[in-house]
Amino acid sequence: MMMIHWFKQLRSAFGVAFLWLVCLIYFTQGFRSFVWTAVSYQLKDRLQLSPSASQFVFSVAFFPWSIKPLYGIISDCIPIGGKKRTPYLVISTVLSLVPWLLLGLDSTSRSSSLYLMIFLTVQNLGSAMADVVIDAMIAEAVRIEKSSFAGDLQSVSWFAMAVGGICGSLLGGYALTNLNIETIFLLFTVLPALQLLSCPLVEEIPSNEPLPELLDSDEFEEKKSKMSNDTYPDTKKSNTRRRKGQKKGKKGASSGKSETHKKQSKSLASKLFQSLKAAALELCRAFKQPIILRPMAWFFIAHITVPNLSTVMFYYQTEVLQLDASFLGTARVVGWLGLMLGTFIYNRYLTNMTLRKSLLFAHIGLSITILLDMTLVSRANVGYGVSDKTMVLFGSALGDAINQLKFMPFLILSGRLCPPGIEGTLFALFMSINNLGNTVGSFMGAGLASLLGISSGSFENMFVGLAIQVFCTYIPVLFLFLIPKEATGVSASS
């Protein structure tokens, strides 16, 4: 009953169409595990790429998630048809839909590693852009409607993504066992197609109408309007002259109209450029503050100093341990449950712990999960009567739980360090730093695997690679002085 009452409150505050779109987009983001599992098998079995080559493809394909602030700045500063959100949501949805459609229908595109990488990159561009736009829409809706529902709306979005992740992992393993990979690509297009049809359901107030404060750009808008009026005073005059010319009929030569039109176009382009420039400068000024720069530098270092060998482990699990797609899907479901458990544990027990200490414990925990992988690779678990499947399930749950314990302080610091007025864009920058660190870590993992000669059917140096990964896990601990000393989950003061 309480859940129903809570949902009714959200519905009355934001409307059914908006809640539906938020849930659908986040569910789709989580459900991507359904199709990306198929991509892993496409690279491994059909294209027969080595582990390092596959990891390189994934690293390039996920790069669009590392430039999320760019999408936010563009949508803030360049309205389309007077609107800043829904047109970009449509564009991003099309970018998410078309690549899967082409990969499902065209055998050439999915049979070439280059074409596949390009289509996957475009698809991630659309997904990352949709993520930024819906976050901005949530922020604006909260400010326009009821700020008291901010936490509730975020909870709905995270819950939708978790449900999507669990469903995608379960169905992904089943689909790989019973369907062709191209059919899986086509089936996934149903969700972005539904998302595209849902975009017109949400009404957006045109940006030329007065709006309450916008999370991504309220300071930017004031500065842009002042800059436009001070720097380009002829804009209003040219508009006035154009209106007067229309009232007087055909008075004035056509060459005069053409010249006025050119001035207007030039002025508009200049204003857009100045808007983008002002937004970028404001973002850079905020990010250069030591209280923001130092913690974000630590999280970036924490990613790039630890090589990511997840793709290599996927090859090992499927080729050496002979684990099928259905079981690996189940392991990912367990991982999602571990993620939710990690969130609960942090919010319930660790919010009063200093972030330095919680991050230290998180890295100790991560090293333990890698030691479990080393036990699996050395086959020591068999000697103790522990099955490979038990090790994989336990490692998946523990790994995702600990990663979430590490990610929660990042979210807390990101939210608390953002200055008023540019929270949305700066938070997107923080998330991009996290994503870029992951991408660089994947490149490092691909390089390490190539250096050690780890390839399909050749895993002799896998244990050495994991040992190096354990050592690297403690490198970020040396830089914990970058995190504010007394900062906790309750306070982020230095």
TrEMBL record:
Any one Pfam family match given in the protein's UniProt record, by short name: BT1
Localization (cell): Membrane
CDD domains according to UniProt: MFS_FBT
TM annotation in the entry: 86-102, 114-134, 155-177, 297-316, 328-347, 359-380, 392-413, 425-451, 463-483
InterPro entries: BT1 (IPR039309), FBT (IPR004324), MFS_trans_sf (IPR036259)
Swiss-Prot/TrEMBL keywords: Membrane, Transmembrane, Transmembrane helix, Transport
Keyword Zinc-finger on entry: no
Membrane topology: Multi-pass membrane protein
Keyword Glycoprotein applies: no
Basic residues compositional bias, start-end: 238-251
Principal location listed in the UniProt entry: membrane
Disordered: annotated segments: 220-266
UniProt feature, compositional bias: Basic and acidic residues: 221-237
PANTHER family reported for this sequence: FOLATE-BIOPTERIN TRANSPORTER 1, CHLOROPLASTIC (PTHR31585), FOLATE-BIOPTERIN TRANSPORTER 4-RELATED (PTHR31585:SF7)
NCBIfam families named in the record: fbt (TIGR00788)
Family from the record: Belongs to the major facilitator superfamily. Folate-biopterin transporter (TC 2.A.71) family.
Name the record gives this protein: Major facilitator superfamily (MFS) profile domain-containing protein
